[in-house]
Amino acid sequence: MKLQDKVALITGAGRGIGAATALRFAREGATIVACDVHEDDVRQTVRDCQDAGATAIGLAADVTDRSGMDRAVGSILARFGRIDVLVNNAGITRDARFEKMTEAQFDAVIDVNLKGVFNAAQAVVTGMIERGRGVILNASSVVGLHGNFGQTNYVAAKAGVIGFTRTWCRELGPKGIRVNAVAPGFIRTPMLDSVPDTVLTRMSDQVPLRRIGQPEEVANLYAFLASDEASYINGAVIEVTGGLRL
Ligand code: NAP
């Protein structure tokens, strides 16, 4: 098993890609800490991981709350002694055309998708530096590479996450910590629930593989990048898009 004995903290693990990643990691032997805004949100994820034979706990932690994240990480370290892998997965959308986007929409997305990544990574990094090893995986998006209509806030955050990744790989690589970003294309999760079927069909027509991806197809990449098989992959931004170019 790829992740035997690794302790993994996954943010936004209540559903979608985060939940699929938690389960995939559990099947690879990891101990799972599934975090989401409300503890109720991660109950099912924790049950699924335990059913797969893993040690798994759920934690209420909002990535925008810096001191809350520090407390959550403190409680994980008290219980498991270390965090080997952080998957910075939590994310939201608040789409609007640029000229109509409100300050509240802009701030909410930057707060969760950009500052939340900073908060969670900074909360875990000291322990990783002390141990001289660790893996940080950041959720970017194909739109962070190419831009997207109606997503000024989201694209800025996802492009910023690529900037974090390329900066932290330089700062933390010499300390034994690998940092990579994953840039999914269109993936079938509750995040796409608000997208009308006609638009989803148009989206899948744009993809060379002619379909929307599944959360498990992103989870597979996270599992590989978290594992020692990816020991020389650092500072990379890897697309899971079915070949989509926006
Ligand atoms: P999702 O289904 O909406 O799940 C996101 C999870 O993050 C939810 O459980 C959500 O909780 C949680 N969350 C939101 N704000 C949080 C906060 N402040 N602190 C902790 N958890 C929080 O999204 P997804 O589609 O799985 O996406 C996962 C990641 O991949 C995101 O970063 C997203 O931007 C990225 N991504 C997704 C796609 C796609 O097509 N789906 C494409 C590219 C990139 P609540 O349910 O309580 O809000």
List its traits.
single chain; 246 residues; Rossmann fold; 7-stranded parallel sheet; binds NADP nicotinamide-adenine-dinucleotide phosphate
Number of helices: 8
List of distinct ligands in this structure: NADP nicotinamide-adenine-dinucleotide phosphate
Instruction: Trace the largest sheet across and list its strands.
Output: 3-2-1-4-5-6-7
CA distance, first residue to last residue: 36 Å
Largest sheet: 7 strands, parallel
Estimate nothing, just give the exact number of structural domains.
Answer: 1
* Structural classification: alpha/beta
The number of E-state strands comes to 7
Question: What is the rounded Rg?
Answer: 17 Å
Strand content: 15-25%
Question: Unreliable stretches, pLDDT < 50, 5 or more residues?
Answer: none
What is the element string, with H for helices and E for strands? Answer: EHEHEHEHEHHEHHE
Q: In the CATH hierarchy, what is the superfamily?
A: NAD(P)-binding Rossmann-like Domain
- CATH class reads Alpha Beta
Bin the helical content: 40-55%
Tell me, what's the shape? globular
